[in-house]
Protein backbone atom coordinates (compact mmCIF):
# COMPACT_ATOMS: atom_id res chain seq x y z
CA UNK A 1 0.00 0.00 0.00
CA UNK A 2 2.92 2.28 0.77
CA UNK A 3 4.35 1.49 -2.64
CA UNK A 4 1.09 2.41 -4.32
CA UNK A 5 0.92 5.79 -2.52
CA UNK A 6 4.57 6.51 -3.30
CA UNK A 7 4.03 5.67 -7.00
CA UNK A 8 0.94 7.88 -7.10
CA UNK A 9 2.78 10.75 -5.42
CA UNK A 10 5.72 10.29 -7.81
CA UNK A 11 3.32 10.32 -10.79
CA UNK A 12 1.69 13.56 -9.60
CA UNK A 13 5.12 15.23 -9.16
CA UNK A 14 6.30 14.15 -12.62
CA UNK A 15 3.04 15.26 -14.23
CA UNK A 16 3.23 18.66 -12.47
CA UNK A 17 6.83 19.17 -13.57
CA UNK A 18 5.94 18.25 -17.15
CA UNK A 19 3.03 20.70 -17.23
CA UNK A 20 5.15 23.45 -15.71
CA UNK A 21 7.90 22.78 -18.21
CA UNK A 22 5.48 22.99 -21.13
CA UNK A 23 4.37 26.40 -20.05
CA UNK A 24 7.96 27.63 -19.93
CA UNK A 25 8.70 26.30 -23.42
CA UNK A 26 5.88 28.37 -24.91
CA UNK A 27 7.55 31.61 -23.84
CA UNK A 28 9.62 33.29 -26.55
CA UNK A 29 12.55 34.28 -24.35
CA UNK A 30 13.16 30.73 -23.06
CA UNK A 31 13.76 29.12 -26.45
CA UNK A 32 17.37 28.47 -27.37
CA UNK A 33 18.85 31.14 -29.65
CA UNK A 34 16.15 33.71 -28.95
CA UNK A 35 16.86 36.99 -27.31
CA UNK A 36 14.51 38.79 -25.03
CA UNK A 37 13.85 42.33 -26.10
CA UNK A 38 12.19 44.25 -23.33
CA UNK A 39 9.01 46.02 -24.29
CA UNK A 40 9.30 49.70 -23.49
CA UNK A 41 5.98 51.34 -22.99
CA UNK A 42 6.04 55.07 -23.45
CA UNK A 43 5.57 56.70 -20.12
CA UNK A 44 3.31 59.71 -20.22
CA UNK A 45 5.36 62.84 -20.04
CA UNK A 46 4.34 64.77 -16.98
CA UNK A 47 2.58 68.02 -17.67
CA UNK A 48 4.68 70.91 -16.46
CA UNK A 49 3.22 72.24 -13.27
CA UNK A 50 2.46 75.91 -13.74
CA UNK A 51 4.31 78.22 -11.45
CA UNK A 52 1.61 80.10 -9.60
CA UNK A 53 2.41 83.43 -8.04
CA UNK A 54 0.40 85.29 -5.46
CA UNK A 55 0.13 89.02 -5.17
CA UNK A 56 -1.71 91.24 -2.78
CA UNK A 57 -3.74 93.80 -4.70
CA UNK A 58 -6.37 96.45 -4.16
CA UNK A 59 -9.60 96.20 -6.13
CA UNK A 60 -11.36 99.53 -6.39
CA UNK A 61 -15.11 99.50 -5.96
CA UNK A 62 -17.63 102.19 -5.02
CA UNK A 63 -19.68 102.88 -1.94
CA UNK A 64 -23.43 102.20 -2.00
CA UNK A 65 -24.27 105.87 -2.70
CA UNK A 66 -21.80 106.18 -5.61
CA UNK A 67 -20.00 109.06 -3.90
CA UNK A 68 -16.45 107.66 -3.76
CA UNK A 69 -14.24 104.75 -4.67
CA UNK A 70 -13.41 102.30 -1.90
CA UNK A 71 -10.54 99.87 -1.59
CA UNK A 72 -11.01 96.13 -1.29
CA UNK A 73 -7.79 94.17 -0.61
CA UNK A 74 -7.51 90.74 -2.27
CA UNK A 75 -4.86 88.13 -2.95
CA UNK A 76 -4.57 87.27 -6.64
CA UNK A 77 -3.12 83.98 -7.91
CA UNK A 78 -1.64 84.02 -11.40
CA UNK A 79 0.91 82.43 -13.71
CA UNK A 80 1.59 85.25 -16.19
CA UNK A 81 1.08 89.02 -16.21
CA UNK A 82 -1.96 88.50 -18.44
CA UNK A 83 -3.41 86.08 -15.87
CA UNK A 84 -2.82 88.71 -13.19
CA UNK A 85 -4.75 91.31 -15.19
CA UNK A 86 -7.58 88.83 -15.88
CA UNK A 87 -7.76 87.88 -12.18
CA UNK A 88 -7.96 91.55 -11.20
CA UNK A 89 -10.73 92.21 -13.72
CA UNK A 90 -12.64 89.16 -12.45
CA UNK A 91 -12.41 90.55 -8.91
CA UNK A 92 -13.44 93.98 -10.21
CA UNK A 93 -16.71 92.39 -11.33
CA UNK A 94 -17.64 91.21 -7.81
CA UNK A 95 -19.25 93.06 -4.93
CA UNK A 96 -17.22 92.80 -1.73
CA UNK A 97 -20.20 93.52 0.56
CA UNK A 98 -23.19 95.85 0.77
CA UNK A 99 -20.89 98.86 1.27
CA UNK A 100 -18.36 97.98 -1.45
CA UNK A 101 -20.12 97.60 -4.77
CA UNK A 102 -18.84 96.72 -8.21
CA UNK A 103 -19.95 98.86 -11.13
CA UNK A 104 -18.40 96.22 -13.41
CA UNK A 105 -20.59 93.25 -12.45
CA UNK A 106 -23.11 93.84 -15.25
CA UNK A 107 -20.43 94.62 -17.86
CA UNK A 108 -19.56 91.63 -20.02
CA UNK A 109 -15.81 91.24 -20.58
CA UNK A 110 -15.37 89.78 -24.06
CA UNK A 111 -11.56 89.63 -24.16
CA UNK A 112 -8.44 90.81 -22.38
CA UNK A 113 -5.05 91.16 -24.04
CA UNK A 114 -1.71 92.40 -22.74
CA UNK A 115 1.07 93.39 -25.12
CA UNK A 116 4.07 95.60 -24.32
CA UNK A 117 2.34 97.11 -21.30
CA UNK A 118 -0.92 97.87 -23.16
CA UNK A 119 -4.05 96.16 -21.84
CA UNK A 120 -6.74 95.95 -24.49
CA UNK A 121 -10.06 95.27 -22.83
CA UNK A 122 -13.02 94.54 -25.09
CA UNK A 123 -16.39 94.73 -23.34
CA UNK A 124 -20.07 94.54 -24.11
CA UNK A 125 -22.15 97.14 -22.29
CA UNK A 126 -25.76 96.00 -21.79
CA UNK A 127 -28.42 98.61 -21.05
CA UNK A 128 -28.63 97.62 -17.36
CA UNK A 129 -24.92 98.45 -16.97
CA UNK A 130 -25.30 102.02 -18.21
CA UNK A 131 -25.06 104.71 -15.55
CA UNK A 132 -25.18 108.49 -15.28
CA UNK A 133 -22.11 110.72 -15.44
CA UNK A 134 -20.86 110.02 -11.88
CA UNK A 135 -21.29 106.27 -12.37
CA UNK A 136 -19.49 106.34 -15.71
CA UNK A 137 -16.62 108.28 -14.13
CA UNK A 138 -16.35 105.65 -11.37
CA UNK A 139 -16.43 102.78 -13.88
CA UNK A 140 -13.39 104.25 -15.63
CA UNK A 141 -11.62 105.25 -12.39
CA UNK A 142 -12.05 101.83 -10.76
CA UNK A 143 -10.62 100.15 -13.85
CA UNK A 144 -7.63 102.48 -14.03
CA UNK A 145 -6.84 102.37 -10.30
CA UNK A 146 -7.13 98.58 -10.24
CA UNK A 147 -4.98 97.86 -13.31
CA UNK A 148 -2.39 100.64 -13.00
CA UNK A 149 -1.15 99.26 -9.68
CA UNK A 150 0.60 96.46 -11.63
CA UNK A 151 4.06 97.08 -13.06
CA UNK A 152 3.20 95.22 -16.29
CA UNK A 153 0.37 97.65 -17.12
CA UNK A 154 1.39 100.97 -18.67
CA UNK A 155 -1.77 101.85 -20.62
CA UNK A 156 -5.32 100.66 -21.28
CA UNK A 157 -7.44 100.62 -24.43
CA UNK A 158 -11.11 100.14 -23.56
CA UNK A 159 -13.15 98.87 -26.52
CA UNK A 160 -16.90 98.37 -26.71
CA UNK A 161 -17.86 95.43 -28.92
CA UNK A 162 -14.44 95.63 -30.59
CA UNK A 163 -14.67 99.35 -31.41
CA UNK A 164 -13.06 102.46 -29.98
CA UNK A 165 -15.84 104.73 -28.78
CA UNK A 166 -15.79 108.40 -27.82
CA UNK A 167 -17.60 107.80 -24.54
CA UNK A 168 -18.44 104.68 -22.62
CA UNK A 169 -21.96 105.69 -21.58
CA UNK A 170 -22.34 109.10 -23.21
CA UNK A 171 -20.91 111.34 -20.48
CA UNK A 172 -17.13 110.98 -20.13
CA UNK A 173 -14.76 111.17 -23.08
CA UNK A 174 -12.35 108.22 -23.33
CA UNK A 175 -8.65 108.54 -24.14
CA UNK A 176 -6.88 106.04 -26.38
CA UNK A 177 -4.86 104.76 -24.74
CA UNK A 178 -5.42 105.71 -21.11
CA UNK A 179 -1.87 106.05 -19.78
CA UNK A 180 -0.50 105.41 -16.31
CA UNK A 181 0.58 108.60 -14.62
Task: Please explain how this structure is put together.
The chain is α+β, with helices and mostly antiparallel strands and 181 residues long. The strands form 2 sheets. Strands 3, 4, 5, 6 and 7 form a 5-stranded mixed sheet that branches. Strands 1-2 form a two-stranded antiparallel ribbon. A hairpin with a 2-residue loop joins strand 5 and strand 6. The termini are far apart.
List keywords for this structure.
181 residues; five-stranded mixed beta sheet; alpha+beta; elongated; 3 helices
Provide a concise account of the structure shown:
With 181 residues, the chain is of the alpha+beta class. It is built from three helices and seven strands; from the N terminus they run αββαββαβββ.
Beta-strand percentage range: 15-25%
**Model regions low in confidence, pLDDT < 50 over at least 5 residues:** none
Major sheet details? 5 strands, mixed
Please report the number of helical segments: 3
Rg over alpha carbons: 35 Å
- By DSSP, the count of extended strands is 7
Proportion of residues in helical segments:
25-40%
- Could you state the order of secondary-structure elements as H and E? HEEHEEHEEE
Average of per-residue pLDDT values: 84
Q: Which secondary-structure class do the elements indicate?
A: alpha+beta
Shape: elongated
Q: How many angstroms does the end-to-end distance come to?
A: 110 Å
